Amino acid sequence: MRSQFNIxxxxxxxxxxxxxxxxxxxxxxxxxxxxxxxxxxxxxxILSQSIYFGLGLLISYALYYYGARWIISIxxxxxxxxxxxxxxxxxxxxxxxxxxxxxxxxxSTLFIFGWVFGFLLARVKWSYAAIFGVLxxxxxxxxxDSIDVSxxxxxxxxxxxxxxxxxxxxxxxxxxxxIEVTLKKxxxxxxxxxxxxxxxxxxxxxxxxxxxxxxxAVEKELASRGAxxxxxxxxxxxxxxDDRDGLMDKTDDGYRLKDTMRVNSKMSQSDKLMFCSKLxxxxxxxxxxxxxxxxxxxxxxxxxxxxxxxxxxxPSFDEMEVDPTTIPMYYSYTDTSIVRKSLGRKLRKxxxxxxxxxxxxxxxxxxxxxxxxxxxTIPVEKDFQKTFIxxxxxxxxxxxxxxxxxxxxxxxxxxxxxxxxxxxxxxRSINNYTKLDKKFLDYYTETPTGGIYxxxxxxxFSLVPKDSKPVDKVIAVRDFFLKRNENGKRVFRYTLKAGAxxxxxxxxxxxxxxxxxxxxAGYCTYYAGASLFMLRALxxxxxxxxxxxxxxxxxxxxxxxxxxxxxxxxxxxxYFPGYGWLDFDMTIGNEDQQGAPKPDGTPPLPPPEPWLxxxxxxxxxxxTTKSLDVSFNxxxxxxxxxxxxxxxxxxxxxxxxxxxxxxxxxxxxAIQPGDSLIIVSYKDEAKKFPQPRAGVPIxxxxxxxxxxxxxxxxxxxxxxxxxKKDELGKKAAKAQEKKLTWQEIAWVAAKxxxxxxxxxxxxxxxxxxxxxxxxxxxxxxxxKADHVYRAALYRFHMAGFERETETPMxxxxxxxxxxxxxxxxxxxxxxxRLKYSNSTLQEGDEVxxxxxxxxxxxSIRKTKGFxxxxxxxxxxxxxxxxFQQPEINSETTSI
Amino acid sequence: MSNTSxxxxxxxxxxxxxxxxxxxxxxxxxxxxxxxxxxxxxxNPGAGKTVLAKTLAQSISEGxxxxxxxxxxxxxxxxxxxxxxxxxxxxxxxxxxxxxxxxVFKKGPLFTHVLLADEINRASPKVQSALLECMxxxxxxxxxxxxxxxxxxxxxxxxxxxxxxxxxxxPTAQLDRFSMKISFGYVSEEVEFDIYxxxxxxxxxxxxxxxxxxxxxxxxLQKAAEEVYIxxxxxxxxxxxxxxxxxxxDIALGCSTxxxxxxxxxxxxxxxxxxxxYVIEDDLRALAQPVLHHRLIFRNREAAQTVLQQIVxxxxxxxxxxxxxxxx
Lengths: 895, 328
Description:
The structure holds 2 protein chains of 2 kinds. Helices cover 48% and strands 16% of the residues of chain A. Chain A has 27 helices and 23 strands. Chain B is built from 14 helices and 11 strands. In chain B, the strands form 4 sheets. In chain B, strands 2-5-8-1-9 form a 5-stranded parallel sheet. In chain B, strand 6 and strand 7 form a beta hairpin. In chain B, helix 1 crosses helix 2 and helix 11 crosses helix 12. Chains A and B meet through helix 21, helix 22 and helix 23 of A and helix 11, helix 13 and helix 14 of B.
């Protein structure tokens, strides 16, 4: 009988799965597709995404169809999650963990979504309306992000969801009853569904044909509106969208690439000022020679994630790793090993630059041309502190062959053409890479093989003979991008709309393939990525470089360059033995570029040259004469840092001095005795400062320093406060570094909610434990009876015997004892006597208490089943009812 | 205690031989007797009200004993209330004594220990009012004379539901004199079958009800009932119930203070009838309806059925949550 019933129910479930769950999974898959188009950071394979979503939906639908409890199943899920996370954390390798977790988070989110939908569909009658709403919103958001403005596009995207909604609207009334599975009925049912589908189709066709004229007008309007914002031509991009179906194998980024993300994510047309720089690099004729500013080298290609990553363990890692914010004012950090690692000796020169960072810039890494090997922090002039928050001076090695002007299209520039020719000739003197370190060469020419990569390699081989000079290979690749078709039009175009606009990542292999063979349109990372693969295939060591393109807009302030967010850039660097890494930017110019270039600003005044910087401690401060006594054992004397063998004391005259705290101007009164100060004295002939004497110990030279030392700048580092401030700053920096995405926020919120939920769920159990503990620790028999009474009432209540308006005595007689036979009535008689009469404990009462208390648990378990007797403690509503007063309507409402 | 309980038991057992299947109602009647109150039985004709009243009376009295020459016996009088009844028919009247050449007071049937006022609402309110003084103060005034009744004066009144034809509703003041008003109700199927099978014997027994308690026993039991312990927390609960009836939106007339006192008296007697010498929270629930309900005037029919229950349940539940020594 029972199994018969179950088979019947199972049949019903199967029917419902076919009719409800499968269409929902399908619509989920379609929505996920749209979502993945617009947010490539989701990419982990659309199929697996929908499988997880579908799995969650299916399982929860089946569970809830069979009447599972919502809260308990959530707890089980949560436990499963914790266990999985444990397992993942045990996986070897940091990367695996990261990868697994990132993927896991996305999948589990989808799974939970599926789960919730399954619950809604199984339990809430009109829930499909909510699901329809969610899916429609998601679809709308994802397609609104697209650059295609054709109305047909939008209609076709939104159509599946609408059809789904109508289908469910049509279906839901049929689902309330038992569905018969006779041939006749199912035939009828199928017929109805087919008719419904035809109706929908018909409606669509009619609407379209009737509205054709209108639609076109709207489309036109939309197109014209869209064109103002982006001029990337929408037609080609549509192809691009369609081709991106299978590209979802990229993970959302994390890693050190975050830095890259920051650079590139500003690539959207933002005109925020990032930084400005004075670069002391000039052509022999004195005109400025700009250099690209490097942010990071991305050397390793990860075929699994299909992205480029920064690799600190790379052979000859020539990126200086220092956080400029940690260097005290005027101090410098030099890493001479960079000079060696940069691998260039010929035509090297040292370039100095000042960099002033605005608040938009990531200030924990160094930005500089080529191989930066030394950095010194400098203050920002008072008038410019609003624009720039910090500054540093850098010294770097670069090749004379490097130049920002050496983008390949230098034709019609009489000065640059010969220069470039000269450069190419110089590089042609290099033979193939024969004498190179094998490891180095292998690393920098490593490309994955198979499929797309092979076709890229083939393309590269078709461009240039394999035995050409390296520089000719580079030029060949360059010329490939500059190719013109028979109409004289460029084949390749520059567009920011190649991928999703905000996609900060380096394009995946398939996107590159499309770029090279189909769309021919992309932005800098496309050009850089494609040329990197081609050059590596040709055996030329190449690396991916991110940073900023330097644009010389005017010669008004010679050597000053201004960098806006839109100048964030990616290009390739090619290694030439003896010359080191040289910039080769394959990105072609944007012919559609419109709008006036951002103007340069007013450059900040150059910081004065100090002859002396003291890292001192304030011993005493005289605010009236503005003088102070300091002790110090560290100093920078004519740009050479020293550490003294003992502390020296000197008075300091600060009457004309600028006092700064936290890089901001303040007053002299801010200096407290005990503060550590950096005291700067400028070079000024009037000061009669002593010149450094070679060969004389610094301590002796310090003896001859003038007294008092005239200070021009004092930077305060508050002893304790400063530290705290620093920490705060670091925290803020970290927060900035780890800008929470909405997924993360939602994740955290979900965690908090679940934690609260669990707490709420555990409360009834905790209360039981409390009650039992009170029995165990009862002082005397009377209190014990009392606690037994309370615990028993609670336990009976939770076991499902809810006392309503009965008195406990009636409850014992009529409800508990007939069901459980634990002698509650007997106990109640005794208890009420103890409670309401003035007699005390009698002989035998304690026996009654224990006779009653002992068998409660066993009896409940016997009647309710072991599992249920425990599970009932997870019904918070029931527990809540225990603590509620019986309802009484309008006790005192009269006034 | 054992003495009183055995006496009580013999009384209830004796009544139960005649009145089958109504132990609760018998207890109520006994409670009213022990609480020195009066009881009003209300039901349709033929439910056994009168039989109960008579049986009780016969269990404690020798029958038609003359009140004035009783001397330790319990006198029992029965008055059938009819529409043409006059107050003087109850109280008595002055009549001219030829021999003494004077008016002498001829005492009416109210001068008794146990009074069965049958179908009290068939008489006009003016007759009903004749009972007011004797029920409340155990005395009867006529003209300028006041006659004291015995300390033991117990009225059992029966009445038909007021919806029935030819009835006059009891005035509120009169109703308040009754400690309890209970509805008799029909018996269950099995009991009814039992009654029909044995009506002959029951009928015979009716006329031969033994007297099991004497006058002294009643007085003793009434005293014992007063000794029953009632916990202050329960008294507080009663206060809250009484106050709640006064402040409730659906109750037009709340419980009087006399009602509250009667409630406590009845609770004590009830506890004793239930073989206890202390009152418990269950007693409140058991007695609230018979003791309090007829004193209240509700604004609507629905409230009449639920409100008092709710008020009492709330209070009882609060009491149930208190621990021994009345700790929260």
